[in-house]
Amino acid sequence: MKTKHVTHKPLLPSTAVMAAAVALTVLVGAANAAPKDPANAPQIKVPAPVLGWASWNAFASSINFDVLKKQIDAYAAPGGLKDAGYTYFNLDDGWWQGARDAAGNMLVDEAEWPGGMKAVADYIHSKGLKAGIYTDAGPSGCGYLNTTRPASAGMTAGMRGHELQDARQFQDWGFDFVKVEWCGGGGFGYQHTVLDSRVAYTTVSAAIAQASAATGRAMTLSMCQWGRDEPWNWAPGLAPMWRTSDDVIFWEKPAGTPDGAAAPLDKMSLRPTLSKALVNFDKGLHPLAHHTGYANDLDMMIVGNAVARGEGAIDLTEAESRTHMALWAMAGSPLLLGSDLTAMNAATKAIVTNAEVLAINQDGRGLQGVKVAEDSAGLQVYSKVLSGSGKRAVMLLNRTAQSAPMMVRWADTGLAGAGTARVRDAWANTDLGSFGASYTATVPAHGSLLLSVSGSEGTSATYTATAGSAGRAATVFKEVKAVAAGLKLANIVYRNGDKAARRASLQVNGQIPTVVSFPPTGGQGKTGAVSVMLSLAKSSANTITFSNAGGSAPDFDALLIQDIAGTNAAALVAAQSGRCIGLPNNRTHLGAEAGLEDCNGGQNQSFARTARNQLAAYGNRCLVAMGAAPAAGAKLGLGECDGATPAAWEFAANGTLAMNGLCLDAPAGGQPALAACDANSQTQRWTFSQ
Ligand code: GLA
To answer: Rounded to an integer, what distance in angstroms lies between the CA atom of residue 175 and that of residue 162?
Structure first.
């Protein structure tokens, strides 16, 4: 059942590794030979985030064939989006009125859709594009809330109870993509029930897979439940994309509003703002779940949207539009434009078709950017590992109201710190020069720079599977070392001789596992590598397990682990119990309560102490005592790091941690909370070694 122990060695070349490779060949035979040099296994390209356009942000539910035909024509016109590489044309809410016939088939209003939905898909295909459609996982839809048409009537509109029937119908019509909404299942429908989203979407995903297998046409599932129920814990393997927040165009909540709060209808604003795009960006960063063709979806875009509504000027300035696009590119989000394509001005077009920026988003390594520095509050540096060796996309994001010099250090991004790197301005497509150790530039207030960096790759440690993994239910890499807790780049060297991707569940220590996809490597004897980000504990005994996840896993040969030093963090360990502060279920929303958990090195248990004595969590949140002026009994949880809530801790030499003059206490059997400081209390002592 289990694989063997794994050897740990420095990065190749090294004679020890070569000796092990030879030994392996002897052990498992030539057909299953492990690569001589795992670091040279070719990187296997994974599916890129969806690139296209969707109807909602420009037209809401006021769509019909005529309206869309104009958009399709503009999309496919010479020099349009299609020529820039965009492929999907997606209908959103509004085609769908919710009625079914006696056999349960969806009815279509042929006055609005002459020839039915097949005619629309055919027209989209005739222009060389892929066609997307929209429905809901619950029994009803969003019509009541967001519609510019009458609400869909009754409880039969959504897929609930019709999953396979509807998936087959979409296939018959010829659609390649289906967005499945959560109003009907999540509590926002005209009439609704509240369902378990994981169960509901598992059923939908299986129905779509079954209907797709029958026709041979893959249908991409887009899950749209706005980050509810922490989809990053379970969406990889079920769908290539899942929403992580509410609508970018929708409603900007006053600062401090808990994430779960419903939007009051009278406060809904359909005015695009950069600050809401930043909110969605912050909520969309779940780098452990973002890999191998599975993507956090920050929502359809709002670049150029007010033009579509005839307001004469784009709501976002050009600089803001570039920042919005750069955020989505760095996050590896699907890029679904949402503006009226017949009215796109030259500035917007230049932004959305910039080839270098699109390449950052579409990069075949399929990883998400992560925050690697914030030397001063609001001056944030993000880095995304790209395909190849030594390649990074870097975003310098100035969230403050003053322009400021900002620095990216190569070492923080995982590049060789002392090396030289070439830097390009991704927007201007121009070289900026070669720079040793770091690059500094002035970034305007509320602005950003997007850079392509090409330097020397940092070193990694190689762990080799000693006995091959063919036919085993699990492959375990033990004694994986990390000198600091934090995010690591992991290259997984494997073989998959099939024609289709294989999958495996990947678990680090006792963390929530993720399903990883392993595309074909071109033959059973051929190795390849895909990349993921992992969160490791500061330990020489991390355990990384690959196990079957529906079908056989590929054969695993090696694992290469590399630091991303800018993400280094530490666990906050209660001295008495030896347990760790953690955010249950990888919750990331503001107001999520922290508790004590068995230590496992998870990102939900890793905190970075900033120069401002904050404990940053997930990059962009802070671990705080909750409440505007935390008093004794205040619980621990996630807050903003922006100074609106008190976030600074006092770290004392005796191991106490105080906020607002009160000490963090973890009473036996209780939850961590603030208490009056007591120098003799064992439950007020913590270890935190970053
Ligand atoms: C929700 C979704 C949006 C859009 C509308 C349609 O708000 O999050 O993306 O699909 O419904 O009603």
So the answer is: 17
Identify the bridge partners of residue 449 per DSSP, sorted by sequence position: 396
Q: Which of 146, 149, 178 to mutate to test the pocket of ligand 1 (most atoms within 8 A of CB)?
A: 146
List Cα–Cα distances, 38 to 41, 461, 464, 504, in angstroms.
5, 11, 8, 19
Instruction: Give the max Cα distance, the chain.
Output: 79
- pTM for this prediction: 0.92
Task: Please report the pLDDT score of residue 150 as a whole number.
Answer: 64
Ligand 1 centre to CA of 618 (Å) is: 27
2 Cβ neighbours under 8 A, 6+ residues apart: 472, 474, 476
477 beta partners: 544
- Report the nearest atom of ligand 1 relative to the CA of 243: 8
Alpha-carbon span 184 to 187, nearest angstrom: 6
Instruction: Write the residue with the smallest CA distance to atom 3 of ligand 1.
Output: 247
Ligand 1 centroid to Cα of residue 342, in Å, is: 22
pLDDT score recorded for residue 628: 78
Q: How far apart are CA 65 and CA 87, in angstroms?
A: 19
Mean pLDDT, the chain cut into blocks of 10 residues (690 residues total): 34 32 29 63 98 93 94 97 98 87 92 97 98 93 66 72 97 98 76 80 98 96 95 98 90 52 47 86 97 98 73 75 98 97 94 98 98 95 98 98 98 96 98 98 97 97 75 86 98 97 97 98 95 98 94 93 98 96 96 96 97 93 89 93 75 93 91 94 93
Query: Do residues 53 and 90 touch, judged by C-beta distance below 8 A?
Result: yes
The tokens describing 362, both together, are: 């579409």
Q: Which residue from 130, 129, 117 is spatially nearest to 77, judged by alpha carbons?
A: 129
Q: From the alpha carbon of 299, which atom of ligand 1 is closest?
A: 9
142 in ligand 1 pocket by Cβ < 6 Å? yes
Does residue 68 contact residue 74 with C-beta atoms inside 8 Å? no
pLDDT for residue 83: 98
Q: Is any ligand 1 atom within 6 A of the Cβ of residue 152?
A: no
The CA distance from 59 to 341, in Å, is 11
Q: Would you state the pLDDT for residue 145? A: 59
Q: Which amino acid is at 19?
A: A
